[in-house]
Specification:
Layout: E1 15-16, E2 29-36, E3 48-53, E4 59-61, E5 64-65, H1 92-96, H2 98-108, H3 120-127, H4 130-139, E6 151-155, H5 161-168, E7 172-177, H6 180-188, E8 193-195, E9 208-214, H7 223-233, E10 234-245, H8 250-255, E11 269-270, H9 273-282, E12 285-291, H10 297-309, H11 321-336, E13 343-350
Parallel strand pairs: 6-7, 6-9, 7-8, 9-10
Antiparallel strand pairs: 1-5, 2-3, 3-4, 4-11, 10-13, 12-13
Helix pairs in contact: 2-3
């Protein structure tokens, strides 16, 4: 039986109308795609309609699953996986000279617990190689050097991969995760992860020097409430890091309803650079900066082509030479202008 022939409807009465953009609250919009289905994990029922906000440029579902029913979309989701990509592995400088990578991290983070031999000289060399430095900074989420007893929370942390990294950099790091399986996997490894979610984190106000949020905001029913809660738990001047699919990505134009960044109905709203900038400013942040995301386009292309072919998300697929060239070109463009990447990586400071 094919994935499409087994498609069922979302439960009656468990849909929520979204007449206004969930990011900027504008009613002006255009139809982007309709008849969308879950072509990533093939577990979520329903067909979905996606609109483009004419004001801020974000894409959002209307109608969408209600908060009470959204769990149906996560039957085969993978937040409990233990692994995590290390972007600097994509740099030949870092892979050929691992001691240089360790030296760079020791210079950036004096409290860093080295994972092997470190070369201070090599670290200084890597700091001068822009491509390698950008990948290393993505690995550590562009975090500032922590002061004594600086606290960090990674919200939506899965099984705690980045919590462990942040702790090695010198932060008092902890995680917050909605998925019970992921929390159990983290705790089994001795990683400080508790169950919880945005926008009501129950965390203390002004308690953290840093908050990170990777691939989470697109899943939330109220992204503005989430950003306000993050501002609440940060100390004045605290650091915020966010990564999310780019609602203006080239891949969305190329692959349309099959673009991996859409992932209906788990992704309720896919924000544009304009929307993200406005939302952060409105929720109490300043010094908003977009950063290079690293060479992620190849992954987005592979995942999107799997959706086109109806393949499982973990099926092997190789790009042809034309797609490889196009993906590399987009990555180069995004190094010059991070707002043109398949993802958006943004940092901001909580206003005083």
């Amino acid at each position: 039986m094919s994935h499409e022939s087994s498609l069922s409807e979302w439960p009656s009465g468990q849909l929520q109308a979204v007449p206004l953009c969930p990011v900027c609250h504008s009613a002006a919009r255009t139809l982007l795609h309709e008849g969308l289905t879950d072509r990533v994990f093939y577990c979520a029922p329903g067909r979905w309609t996606l609109y483009r906000c004419s004001d801020c440029g974000s894409a959002y579902l209307d109608p969408r699953p209600s908060p009470a029913s959204i769990g149906l979309a996560y039957a085969r989701y993978y937040t409990h996986d233990e692994g995590g990509i290390q972007f600097s592995d994509l740099s030949p400088w870092c892979t050929r000279f691992p001691a240089w990578r360790e030296g760079y991290l020791q210079q950036r983070f004096p409290a860093y617990r080295s994972q092997g031999p470190a070369s201070a000289w090599g670290g200084r060399v890597l700091a001068q190689i822009g491509s390698a430095r950008a990948l290393l900074e993505r690995d550590v989420r562009h975090l500032p050097t922590p002061g004594p007893a600086a606290r960090l929370v990674d919200i939506g942390c899965g099984s705690g991969h980045f919590v462990r990294i942040a702790a090695s950099l010198g932060y008092q790091a902890e995680g917050l995760e909605f998925d019970q399986q992921a929390v159990a996997a983290a705790q089994a490894q001795g990683i400080a992860v508790a169950q919880g979610a945005l926008p009501d984190t129950w965390l203390d106000s002004a308690a953290f020097e840093a908050v990170t949020l990777s691939q989470v905001i697109e899943h939330l029913h109220d992204p503005l409430a989430a950003l306000r809660d993050i501002a609440r738990i940060l100390k004045p001047g605290g650091f915020f890091w966010l990564a999310t699919p780019n609602g203006q990505a080239h891949g969305l134009k190329r692959f349309g309803p099959h673009w991996r960044g859409l992932e209906p109905p788990r992704h309720l709203a896919v924000l544009s650079p304009t929307a993200l900038t406005r939302a952060l400013a409105a929720c109490g942040f300043r010094d908003i900066r977009f950063h290079p995301v690293g060479p992620v386009t190849r992954w987005f292309y592979q995942a999107s082509l799997k959706a086109v072919a109806g393949l499982p998300h973990d099926a092997p697929l190789s790009l042809n030479s034309q797609d490889q060239h196009e993906a590399a070109s987009i990555d180069r463009r995004a190094r010059r202008d991070p707002k043109q990447g398949e993802e958006l990586v943004v940092t901001a400071i909580r206003s005083c």
